[in-house]
Design goal:
InterPro entries: Kinase-like_dom_sf (IPR011009), Prot_kinase_dom (IPR000719), Protein_kinase_ATP_BS (IPR017441), Ser/Thr_kinase_AS (IPR008271)
Shape: globular
Order of helices and strands: EEEHEEHHEEEEEHHHHHHHHEH
Protein name: Protein kinase domain-containing protein
Keywords: ATP-binding, Kinase, Nucleotide-binding, Serine/threonine-protein kinase, Transferase
GO molecular function: ATP binding; protein serine/threonine kinase activity
Family: Belongs to the protein kinase superfamily.
């Protein structure tokens, strides 16, 4: 895809702000020639390599390269890229159905069979992504959207590929960025990463989806990471009393310390919970359901935390203080650990590792 060096205003009418991050914002765009609505991701880029104000241009180029390779019905599409001296604009698919978790929280009851239909779309997108040797590295509820809220059946879209990476043959890749409650042990330990890193996140998301609990989350990020390293999670009976054994088995096979032992996205799609082999398995799935009372509580708390983080983010923007610094040259392109959806929740695991080592 050729970068356009004209003004985005020449081809699109710019509308309201959909969201903001540390180095930019997302706004609605209307294509003048067709009237089609898109979303514009306006990213401030660094004028000098030594500057901390803005995103490294190469990081945006890598995100563009990733999105160009991911033409899939469950992945946000990229249409255009505009480049100027101080800013780059990514024109992407306009996704206005809201977050999947918000959609589910509005329901009174959701069976495991219904939840599986959502997970299948997520897994199909991740399987396609991994077939291109691309890992997302920031899978979490905030990055799982619906293209249109009231569509039947709902169509899921994965968004925010700012931390994604396309692996080259023989490459060893490390990163210390991620959202604490969704990252696997290899991120905390600053070990080599792979597409299996995403599979751990899917295990956490599935656990939350079924129970309304986060398997490792504690009162502090340090304690959360300690729980991850200790593999300290369980299935409390009073919470999981309506969860099928196959669902628990599915989660168990993803929350595995050794990345090579985790199920792949393709293996997940043929797991008996997702693709039952017998009528009994189908019946058990249909009788089982999400713990909606707990799920609604979790989602309300999550939304409150996001709002609280937005206030903190705005205060930081006013002070123009960078949020975190990369721990090594390998992390330089990771947007200073920025997430497009949340600001303060995504932190460097390297800082947390130092805290953990000093407290043990």
């Amino acid at each position: 895809m050729a970068f356009k060096h004209v003004n985005v205003e020449d081809l699109y009418d710019i509308g309201g702000v959909l969201g903001s991050g540390h180095f930019g914002q997302v706004r609605t765009l209307t294509e003048r020639s067709t009237g089609t609505q898109w979303a514009g991701k306006f990213i401030k880029t660094r004028k000098k390599a030594s500057s901390r104000l803005g995103v490294e241009k190469g990081a945006v180029e890598r995100e563009v390269e990733v999105l160009q390779a991911l033409h899939h019905p469950n992945i946000m599409a990229l249409k255009d890229v505009f480049e100027s001296r101080a800013e780059m604009v990514l024109v992407v698919e306009f996704i206005d159905g809201g977050e999947l978790f918000d959609f589910i929280a509005e329901k009174d009851n959701v069976s495991e069979s219904e939840a599986i239909e959502f997970l299948k779309q997520i897994l199909q997108a991740v399987d396609f992504m991994h077939s291109k040797h691309i890992a997302h590295f920031d899978l979490k509820p905030e990055n799982i959207m619906l293209s249109v809220k009231d569509a039947a059946p709902p169509n899921i879209k994965l968004i925010d590929f700012g931390l994604a990476h396309q692996f080259k043959q023989g490459e060893e890749y490390k990163s210390s960025c991620g959202t604490p409650q969704y990252i696997p042990p290899e991120v905390i330990n600053y070990g080599p990463l792979s597409t299996a890193t995403d599979m751990w996140s899917i295990g956490v998301i599935t656990y939350i989806l079924l129970s309304g609990l986060s398997p490792f989350q504690d009162y502090t990020d340090e304690d959360t990471l300690k729980n991850i390293l200790a593999m300290k999670y369980e299935f409390p009976e009073h919470i999981f009393n309506m969860t099928s054994d196959l669902a628990k088995d599915f989660i168990h096979k993803l929350l595995v310390t050794d990345p090579s032992e985790r199920m792949t996205a393709n293996e997940c799609l043929i797991h008996q919970w997702i693709k039952p082999l017998t009528r009994k398995q189908v019946a058990n799935r249909n009788r089982s359901s999400i713990n909606m009372k707990n799920f609604k509580k979790f989602n309300a708390k999550r939304k409150w935390k996001m709002s609280f983080n937005m206030v903190r983010m705005c205060n930081r923007l006013l002070r123009l203080q960078p949020r975190c610094s990369p721990s090594s040259a390998a992390d330089e392109h990771l947007r200073d650990c920025e997430s497009d959806t949340e600001d303060t929740v995504t932190k460097t695991a390297s800082l947390m590792r130092r805290r953990l080592s000093s407290s043990t």
